Amino acid sequence: MAEQGLASGCAANVAGFSLHAGVMSNAQDRGKLERLCRYITRSGVSEKRLAITTYGKVRYQLKTPYRDGTTHVIFEPLDFIARLAALVPKPRVNLTRFHGVFAPNSRHRVTITPALRNKAKKALPTGQEKTRAQKHQSMTWAQRLKRVFNIDIETCEQCGGAVKVIASIEDPLVIQKILIPFRIKFFPPVASPESTFG
Hints:
Layout: H1 2-8, E1 11-14, E2 17-20, H2 30-40, E3 50-52, E4 58-61, E5 72-75, H3 77-87, H4 109-112, H5 132-135, H6 141-149, H7 172-179
Antiparallel strand pairs: 1-2, 3-4, 4-5
């Protein structure tokens, strides 16, 4: 497919970087844009092709066999974890970098991004209403929870009615007082010095 894209002028491969522009979508086609984003951000390992052998080793089925006919690779569990750990990016490092007019500090960014976002928040002139894109700049954390983890906290599990978040309680003492009547024990997570990032 990459060769076909190169032939049609929809793809390029220069200095180790590849760009494929064969898939297009209208800005209003939110469903197609979401499918494309989910495809781009998919996991590096398919759980469907992953299995544990009877000897406790990790077996991974290859999507396409090697030239020598190999269809599966076998790892010791620690070796497999080490290979997975190599794919995890370092904490607090941006994986996507923007240049030119898409750079965060570009003064022209606000004119080309759909939600007119820029680092410097610009006040609207008096009497002017926000556009549709400005009103929908970002999702609520409940909407993000539903989209990313498929956890819907805005719908009641029992009756299917709408649920409204009225408070977010973060104080461990208050949480404890609320849970005691239900006989639910609450132990707030304690971060060990080894688990914190330097």
